[in-house]
Amino acid sequence: MTSPSFSGHAHQPHPHAPSPAEVPLRHDWALPEVRALYELPLLELVYRAQSVHRAVWKENKVQLCSLLSIKTGGCSEDCGYCPQAARYDTGVKAEKLMAVPEVLDAAKKAREAGATRFCMGAAWREVKDGPQFDQVLDMVRGVKSLGMEACCTLGMVTDSQAQRLKAAGLDAYNHNLDTSEQHYGEIITTRTYDDRLKTLERVRNAGIGVCCGGIIGLGESIDDRCQLLVTLANQAHHPESVPVNALVPVEGTPLQQNQRVDALDMVRTIAVARILMPASMVRLSAGRQQMSDEAQLLCMLAGANSVFFGEKLLTTGNPEFAQDMALFAKAGVKPLEPNVDRPLSQ
Ligand code: SF4
Q: Cα separation of 63 and 118, whole Å?
């Protein structure tokens, strides 16, 4: 189905997106046409992606997000890339859920460093009702009171849990599809692709923004990569947020020997994501720290309009944080300002 413009379409662009533009939101992409886009000469692909990007995101700003692991390690799932899976010997120790004040301290630091979105991740298969979930709801309320966008990634959720997260003020829920349905079984066996789609539906039904993307470098084919993007774009509503990650192979995980992703493959994936989902925030996520300045800028030219700071990157004085800031300054990249409707002095 093709809609002529954003106006009149059920899916609303991200609140920071400028006024509606005449870029169609399509939900009927076919694999061959997406593959043909992916295989365009690189500069032609980047040009097309940048044209779509600038038609929609006229201010051309980049959102800084911060990701905090609020509950690390000990996960019962078997995601082949993940050092937090209890079954792999990666040196990551299982920790308890962080206390609310600690999380809010980290959120404040992130805000001071310029982040406008705070993402909290727990290494759980699924959310369980009880004191721990109540604690997470308090974290969401606390992050909202700081005037930041709040996002969580907690594994699978039920309808009522999604509704409670929404009531607490959650803006977005992250649950990645990771890869194509065809390749998925090679990476994860402890839950199905369909389980993931159901969680996304529950999040959507609760009125929470959907953050859903994938990882490249999982041993997938180009078709798998394109099929993931087709699956995302052909949902009734495009995810508001699409993180594109490059595998960072971790010793002890089944994918430890995988070859590093070529930065230009990231550029292509981001460009195609931008063309397929013009109004979504496309987030250059894991793997960014391994990329050169030039490759990161090429990703932004291809339509990435958000980057993540890891929690350790948030302290000013940290060399990687300083490097990020220097890159933004050198290239004149404008970060998205904090939400001015909410006071930042709390
Ligand atoms: S569910 Fe999340 S934390 Fe658990 S193994 Fe998979 S990616 Fe890692």
A: 11
Q: What is the predicted pLDDT for the residue at 340?
A: 45
Q: Which atom of ligand 1 is nearest to the CA of 123?
A: 3
Q: What is the pLDDT of residue 88?
A: 92
Q: Which of 84, 87, 174, 285 to mutate to test the pocket of ligand 1 (most atoms within 8 A of CB)?
A: 84
- Residue 318: its pLDDT value, please? 59
| Secondary structure of residue 101 in the 3-state scheme | helix
Q: pLDDT-based confidence at 337, cuts 50/70/90?
A: confident
* Smallest CA separation from ligand 1 atom 2, residue: 123
Architecture of domain 26-330: Alpha-Beta Barrel (3.20)
Domain parsing of the chain, residue ranges:
26-330
Give residue ranges with CB within 6 A of ligand 1: 75, 77, 79, 82, 84-85, 123, 155
Nearest atom of ligand 1 to the alpha carbon of 125: 1
- The predicted-structure confidence for 217-228, as pLDDT tens digits, reads as follows 999 999 999 999
Q: Catalytic residues, which ones?
A: 75, 79, 82, 119, 151, 211, 283
How many CA atoms lie within 13 Å of 181's alpha carbon, on the beta-carbon side?
9
Token couple for 52: 């779509």
Stretch (H or E) spanning 21: none
CA–CA dist 114, 337 (Å, integer): 8
Closest ligand 1 atom to Cα of 85: 5
Dist CA 284 CA 246 (whole Å): 9
DSSP letters, 103-170, are: HHHHHHHHHHTT--EEEEEE--SB--SSHHHHHHHHHHHHHHHTT-EEEEE-SB--HHHHHHHHHHT-
Mean pLDDT of 148-158: 95
Q: Is the pLDDT at 324 greater than 60, yes or no?
A: yes
Q: What is the pLDDT of residue 309?
A: 77
